[in-house]
Design brief:
The structure is a homodimer. Chain A is α/β, with parallel strands linked by helices and about 450 residues long. In chain A, about 35% of the residues lie in helices and about 25% in strands. Chain A has twelve helices and 28 strands. Chain A has a six-stranded mixed beta sheet with strand order 5-2-1-9-22-21, with helices on one face. A four-stranded mixed beta sheet of chain A has the order 8-7-6-19, with no helix packed on it. The first copy, chain A, has a four-stranded parallel beta sheet with strand order 13-12-11-17. In chain A, strand 15 (about 275-280) and strand 16 form a beta hairpin. In chain A, helix 2 (about 50-55) runs parallel beside helix 10 and helix 6 packs antiparallel against helix 7. The longest helix of chain A has 26 residues, at about 1-25. The two termini of chain A are about 40 Å apart. At the A-B interface, helix 1, strand 4, strand 5, helix 6 and helix 12 of A face helix 1, strand 4, strand 5, helix 6 and helix 12 of B.
């Protein structure tokens, strides 16, 4: 009977996909055009949210555009924490850059790591040789900021790219596998204790998802373990979590986290971690084999001659037009750019990068045509964070949502923003599956 | 309009998944039962096709069953070549062993690598300590056999597990990325030349899929490259490919491979490979950066005291009951076991492992109950290989299929055999997507 249901679902799914495939195919254009000489050469470094937006915004402009990234894919970073908690497959939140840009004849891609910016001779230095440019857009994003805590930098897990997310997934599952055959209670407790540093959206979302993975899924996988031995601790240096949201939403988030079994400790900063024991600023210690660092990011350093002007946090100082101060043919956007709005720098989040990418594409068009540039104005459309099943907080202008409505809105917003219909479909199936079956199907330890 | 279509498909897909989820959930049983003492202890080494079948066959038997594997997942090996050619995500053909065995209270899992069999004291030695057994089932499978060619072993890619498949995918895509910025024509040709050694099903399927990946997908991604510079060469030492099939099917396979652009060279064996140049037995050489080894497998060596009886190819000699010769409480199955049927050893394929697993589960039941054991009889249900879009060959008893019908049959047989409804659904979506869009969405270089 169930077998019949499966076959029926296959047939239906197949028919829907096929029909939709046919419709979407009509929209596909395969316009391969050789690169034309004589056009100004725009080089974009970084294929994240900002860099891609610039590249797409330059479609049809009379410019020879090259986008450079050290990976061959764009990664949808807001869902990295779901890869790290075995809810999504890493390939589902990544998309090959060449695939994304296929329909745009004047944009090419090169996989390379930029080692140095030679602003004097207008070229980038890479291991594969120099890349000349007329206009340069820097969109290399951010990396974890350990604030000089070297022991933490050595032993903590980051959550900024696909490899880090998969490494964290493998590590957490490996801790459970080792705990099963660990007779010493103290060492077993250290294996089953997971500490997340940082109460921003990444820390909150990861901690909530990890607590659910343990309580709803791993508890059944490891029937021989007493799952109460496992703890998830969220440590935040400030007085509360999600500092950019309204106090009522902060309280709702802490309540949701506690309900899901997360031990939230505010006003506690990590001072050191030797791989075995975390020292906190309040003098207490936690024995754990896992520290996930979501307590801060900094701009990725970009060596340059002459050096580009940077703020103390490493972000590059930009004009209101997003041109780097003193370098009229170099733009910087996203996490990398220090853009002051009313005296405070804009946050390092995807919407800033996307909107800045749009402005830079417009300004490049204008600069190439000899027209005056426009100033960037950030439109804050709000922010949200999910804590787990049926639980999220969202602040959209004056609208404040918690619980199930916020959670549904979070799902929809993230689903729509994913690149490629295929990824959206696969993510939706995974989410639906996990929701109904209390499952996390990707709990695989895939790398040695 | 297309956006509306997407939303409609989401709603429909979601409803179907939800409804189906509800139906399937009714079947789920969560029977957690503590392990009972006093029962004989059966240890199964290897969670492949054979080992899993034994574990499932022992459900409900009064035995304390432990299955041990060095990975925490079962991998559906017949589709590894699709992971290696960016058609499927690695997580889609893997399933956590704990998930598979959740409903079976007397079977547990331990992730560990067995280093030694201490048959004298009836225990397995692992890095985490010894595992005692009363009955032992060895199902550790096979690994690439380089027939003593050390240079090949050093530089060739295997295609026997998930990590190898992902490494090969990353390497092939990396060759194209490097070729784009390689000005020297000879070096570029070496980057774009891919040699597959071995004309068995794995070699044929991988070569066909790789040729399609290049011709249908990468040709559009790398518009700056002349795709005719790229070659896929299948080298086979014997006189033909797919030696176990009928001559008419062999010819059909070679014809299909040629149509897809694969250069098939029979009666040519690889003699050496230094990472740059392959030397063949006919005296010719091929400059390439990629050699994929599918020319032979051998049993995974298992050190034991006293040593188990092995054939020259490393396979363990077994009685007709699948007991290891001279070790009545140790069984060996699958690729690891040398079982002679009418004078020739059975092939190293999944159906043999599965059928042997069923027999071993039955014999363990009988042995524990003190009843006489049964002899293993292999039922050959035929074999098949796919060459790419709409092309496959299949031999099922007297039935011989080629082209589209064989291809559809191949798809159905493999889809049905995948473990878990979710994986079947995701694989089906990927296949449908790729078929209609001439796409391979997983062409990501994911590891450093």
């Amino acid at each position: 009977m169930a077998r019949f249901g499966e076959i029926a679902a296959f047939a239906l799914g197949s028919a829907v996909t096929a029909g939709l495939g046919w419709i979407l195919r009509q929209r596909q254009r395969d316009r391969r055009v050789p690169i034309l000489g004589g056009w100004p050469r725009v080089v974009i470094v970084g294929a994240g949210f900002g860099g891609l937006r610039v590249a797409r915004g330059l479609a049809g402009v009379e410019a020879d555009v090259l986008i450079v990234d050290r990976h061959n894919y764009h990664c949808f970073q807001p869902l990295l924490y779901q890869v790290a908690t075995a809810a999504l497959e890493p390939e589902e939140i990544a998309q090959p850059v060449r695939r994304i840009l296929r329909g745009i004849p004047n944009v090419r891609f090169r996989m390379a790591e930029v080692e140095h910016i030679d602003a004097e001779h207008q070229q980038l230095l890479t291991a594969d040789g120099p890349i000349p440019y007329d206009y340069l857009v820097l969109a290399t994003g951010s990396m974890p900021n350990f604030f000089g805590l070297d022991t933490v930098a050595t032993h903590a897990f980051g959550l900024k790219d696909l490899n880090q997310a998969v490494a964290l997934r493998n590590h957490v599952l490996g801790c459970f596998e080792r705990a099963v055959s660990e007779p010493d209670p103290e060492r077993r407790a250290a294996l089953l204790t997971f500490v997340v540093a940082g109460g921003g959206p990444t820390g909150v979302e990861y901690a909530g998802a990890l607590a659910e993975l343990i309580r709803l899924v791993l508890a059944h996988d490891y029937a021989g373990l007493d799952i109460k031995e496992s703890r998830v601790i969220l440590v935040e240096a400030g007085p509360t979590v999600l500092p950019t949201l309204a106090p009522s939403l902060q309280k709702a988030a802490i309540r949701s986290l506690s309900q899901k079994g997360v031990d939230v400790r505010t006003r506690a900063a990590v001072k050191g971690y030797d791989g075995e024991t975390i020292c906190l600023s309040d003098g207490s210690t936690i024995r754990t084999r896992t520290l996930v660092w979501a307590a801060g990011v900094r701009a990725v350093p970009l060596p340059s001659t002459p050096p580009l002007p940077t703020a103390p946090n490493g972000r590059i100082k930009v004009e209101p037009t997003l041109q780097v101060e003193g370098f009229p043919n170099i733009y910087a956007i996203g996490d990398l750019a220090q853009f002051d709005a009313d005296g405070t720098p804009l946050p390092m989040v995807a919407p800033v990068a996307i909107q800045q990418g749009e402005t830079v594409a417009e300004n490049l068009r204008r600069q190439i045509a000899g027209q005056p540039l426009i100033r960037f104005v950030y439109r804050d459309r709000g922010s949200m964070a999910t804590i787990g099943r049926n639980a999220a907080v969202a602040q959209l202008g004056r609208l404040r949502l918690t619980g199930f409505p916020a959670w549904v809105m979070w799902l929809l917003v993230h689903l729509v923003q994913l690149i490629s219909f295929r990824n959206r479909m696969l993510v939706l199936i995974n989410w639906t599956w996990d929701y109904f079956f209390y499952d996390r199907a990707v709990r695989l330890i895939t790398r040695d």
